Every structure is written in C-alpha cells, then in structure tokens.
Amino acid sequence: MTETFDVKLDEKLYIPDPRIKESAWTPDYTAAYREFLQDPEGFWEKAARELEWFRPWEHVLEWEYPYARWFTGARLNITYNCLDRHVRGERRDKPAIIWRGEAGEERILTYEQLSAGVMRLANGLKSLGIEKGDRVCIYMPLVPEQIIAMLACARIGAVHSVVFGGFGAGALHMRIQDAEARAVITADVGYRRGKTIPLKAIVDEATKDTQSVERIVVLRRADPPAELRPDREVDLAELMANAAPECPPEVMDAEDPLFILYTSGSTGAPKGIVHTCGGYMVGTYYTTRHVFDIKDEDIFWCTADTGWITGHSYIVYGPLATGATVVIREGTPDYPDPGAFWKIVQDLGVTIFYTAPTAIRMFMKYGEEWPDRYDLSSLRILGSVGEPLNPETFEWYYRVIGKERCPIVDTWWQTETGMHMITTMIGEPMRPGFAGKPIPGVVADVVDKDGNPVPPGTGGFLVIKEPWPAMLRTVYKNDERYCRYWNTIPGCYTAGDLAVKSEDGYIMVLGRADDLIVVAGHNIGTAEVESALVSHDAVAEAAVIGKPDPLKGNIIKAFVILRVGENPNDGLTAELARHVRKNLGPIAVPAEIAYVDRLPKTRSGKIMRRVLKAQELGMDPGDISTLEE
Ligand code: WT7
Q1: Are residues 583 and 568 located together in one domain of the fold?
Q2: CA 123 to centroid of ligand 1, rounded, Å
Q3: Which residue in 510, 590, 596, 601 is deepest, having the highest Cβ count within 10 Å?
C-alpha cells in the first residue's frame, strides 16, 4: 500500500433548481443522513417495511465482523416484490419492460405478462430437475427473456450466475466451472452492429468438458431455428408453453443466496461475488427509489447490460421492486448511427437515463449534432456509473443532454456493494469530478493505510465503515478472499479505490489503488492525468501508464484517442503536454504521448491499463479473459 498524497481540487459548484427538491423522495439529504445516524437499524427497517415479507425479521442486523446478516429470520421472495405485489395491485397492466432491438423493433411486457412468463419458466426449470440452491448460468443477449430467466431462478430459489453475452468461451467456461452450474440458459444468437453473435456455439465450446452442466435451455431467435441435441438441449419457448401457468414463490430465508456474479475487475482473476435475498432487495429498492427518485410515471433507462451488477440492481431488481417501467435495448449505442440512443429517449419519453462515462465520451467524440436532432425534453434525471465522471464529461452531459435542467447523479459503487454507496442526491449542489457524499444508510470515508481519516485535499483509500444491507456476503467458495476486503485496513471495508474529500465532505474517486504511478517519488493517479488530457478539446479518450525509468522510477506514457477531425502532430503533442502542466503541474506531464484508434477495455468499459503496460514493456499481460476485443 502506498502513502497518502496531495490532490489539487477544483472548486466549481453547480446549484440545481430548488424546485427539484420539492417532490423528491429525499427532499433534504442532510436531514435524511442525520435520521440514519440517529438510528441506523431503524433507518433500514423503515425501508424494509415498504416491501412484503412472508415472515418478519428477528433482528435487522447481526454483525460479527467481518460477517453481516441482515433481517435475520425473515422469509421472503424477491420476485413476489418485483411481480406479484404489482400484479395484485394497480400496476397489473403497466409496462414493466420495453425492449428495443437494433433495427428499432419493439416488445412491451406488462407486469402481468412478465409475471406469467416468469412463472412458466420457473415451472419449466423445475421440470428439468432444478431445485432451490442449484446454480444456473444465464448467458443471453439483452432481451426480455434474460430478465425472465433471472426472475425464474429467483422464483424457485435457484442461484443465478449471469455471464455477460460478450464474453468468450474461455471466460464462460471458467465461470460455469467455478459455480458448478447444473443448467445454462442461452440463446442461439445475439445481434450487434447488424451482425449475429453465435451465443449457442460459444456455449457448446464452453461446456464441452464440464461435469456439472446437465441441461442447456435455448431461446431460438434465428431463422431457420438452430438444431437442438434432444438428450440435453431444450427449446425455451417449448419449455414455457408446456409448463403450468402458476408457480408459487419459494419461501427464502433473508440470508439465502440470490445470485453469484463474477467481477469484471481490470486486475486479477474473476471472483464470484455472492449476494443474498433480503438485504439486497432492501438496498436496491431503497436506492432506486431515493437516488433516482423514481415515480410511477417515470420511464427509466439504464443502458448497462444485465450481465453486470448495474443491470442486476438497476435494470432488474431495484426498478421492478419499485414497480417502474424499464427500457432495455439490445445492440451498441452508435448503431445504426450515433443518434440511436437519443432516438429512443425521444420515442419512449425516457425520464431517467443512467449510463457510463465511457459511453458519454463516445457521444462527445461524435459531436453535439447527434443529440441535437432529437427532443430530449422528457429527461429529468441523468446518472453515471463505472468510472470517474471527469469534469469535462460532466459538463458536456449536463449541457448537451440535460440542457442544464437535469441533475446528474454520479453513483459510486461496486459489484461487491450491490447498491449505490456515494452520490450527490438530486437537488444538492453538484461538484463536477466528485461523486458526492455517502447516501443515507452508508458510512464512507477516505483514510490512510492505518484507517485514520485524512484531511480534505489529501488523497487516501476509500473505505466503508459500517455494514450495509446489499453488501456481498462472501466470495463463492473463498471466504479467505472475502475476509481480505475487511482486514486490509483495520475495521473497514476496503474498496480498492483511491479518493479525496473536499472541505465540505464531497468525495472524488481517483481510480483504483493499483492504478497509481510513482514518478520521482510523487504518487499520481492515472485518472487525474487522463481527466486532464480529456479536458483538452482535441482529445476524445486517454489512458496513461507508468513506464520504468532509471532516473525517475517511472515516467508517464499516455495513449490518446483524438476527436473526429483532429490529426496527430508534434505541435499537438507539445500542446497537450502544456495543457496537463497547466492543470496538474509539471510532475504529471506525460513524457511520451502515443496516438491510437482504440484502447483495451474490459467488457464493462474499464480501460485495462495493465494490457497497455504489458504491450509497452513486452511482458505477458496475464489473464485477459475480460478484455473486450
Ligand atoms: C469499480 C467497481 C458499480 C457498477 C459498475 C462497475 C469504479 C464505479 C464509479 C464512479 C468513479 C467508479 C470504481 C469501483 N467506479 N462507479 N461513479 N466514479 N469510479 O462495477 O465492475 O464492480 O467496478 O468501478 O473503481 O471500485 P465494478
């Protein structure tokens, strides 16, 4: 672990329209946070009471460091809250899911229809012998059946392990093996940029020599439909059609596992993060409602894939628990043209839009004319997740997409946290570059390696100091790895991120602790230098690495993607160096700048700096199963 370091902070503040707070679920962040501190368990208990349980809890929290159990003794089924609760009430005919395909095709499923599909598939899985506690791998494109498959597992208490449909056979194989999945639910093909992705063929490859997989359920979309092997392959539509329509929800203990999700971390081998039923339900429900301020009229679009935690928590479980209308879209954001997303916002009247900085930077690269062709006036709240939202990108998002009207919630969280942890709640003043403050219900801080809080302006480690309901319970079959989250810094959950606080308690996330470069004895965060580069008009995206240097220990090398219409030349290189010097000081100036067309990224859009570094130094890049291309 490194020592703390100084960070220069931007003091810019955006004050939102005070009317935003008037109708917000959390009209006063400070008061809500105070209420939480006065009675932390009472705070979460209140949120839990808004949902339906088959049996109440004995204790809200039992905390035996580092193991937490939430809502102990309670019984529930998360699908009862995501489906039955609405079908029995006033949301029966309300659209639950609006799906758009790449060519503009549309499917709408009401809560009633979604519930009916889930129950049929749940019965279908039962008929294949799948029982409570069995692991089921879901490897599908972003279609309603993917969500139906997740909920069908949860309905019968099977543990789903969703693997993003962009992963290759090796990554899929490793995840199926580790989870010992008894069944795989897949589709014959997915669609991307007008081409088909042969998912089923990848599953065949990945399950060639797996002992655990007994059945493969296939959604057949292609024409003519793919051939199935009668001994172990099943047609999903047939399975549903032949199944009984009613499937009562399995009664789950609050601490029974709900799903495993392998992290797509940019370093190291994937870990199976385990989430449980009760606490995860309460955490995702509360944050969906209060961070996105979801109301019944909202059209909510989270552009992630359900294969990531963002999709689990904020496409599926959180929004459906609140009874929202959720938009999903198969395909890439710039296909058939860079206006594809904005057309959907206009067509469907999207009100809450949640995406990643890497997508926003891509839109910046294409230019304002694309969003400007569409009516975006339905939008009321914008969200960001996945990486630091650097000020340049914040300002573009705020001005060009939100028309200086919509608050931006930059939400910091992780696969491990299950739910939002840090953001600027709507209506609060926004600081570009800063995610914000811990949400009510969460205690976060920036500390040194011994766990002592560092003063404002000093960088340190981002930690969570108290358990929270949606926290991971363990790493699948690896308690030792789980304990490491809690014993790296005494008494704290260590997120692995570096951060810095402002005088008024806003937290800026600087990037992963392992993305730090030591230049001539100074610690420099890759995210800071990248942010400085991207703030130059000519730059669309940047990644920086440390390169060993006999004199300085390391020098900084930058890889830069220019915006459309910009050309690399020596003048520009000097100009970029000047620009970084002005922003961050001479110590952070890249000694080398290379112009590239693409950067190695994980499927979830995180730059894999270690791949760049390995290339640069002619080393073995290590595990690259999460690399996009
Ligand atoms: C890591 C977690 C949580 C859903 C998507 C990624 C980075 C996430 C932010 C943010 C700065 C962020 C962190 C974190 N990260 N959100 N708003 N600002 N950094 O989930 O794959 O588990 O990655 O993503 O480095 O530790 P994940």
Answers
A1: yes
A2: 36
A3: 510
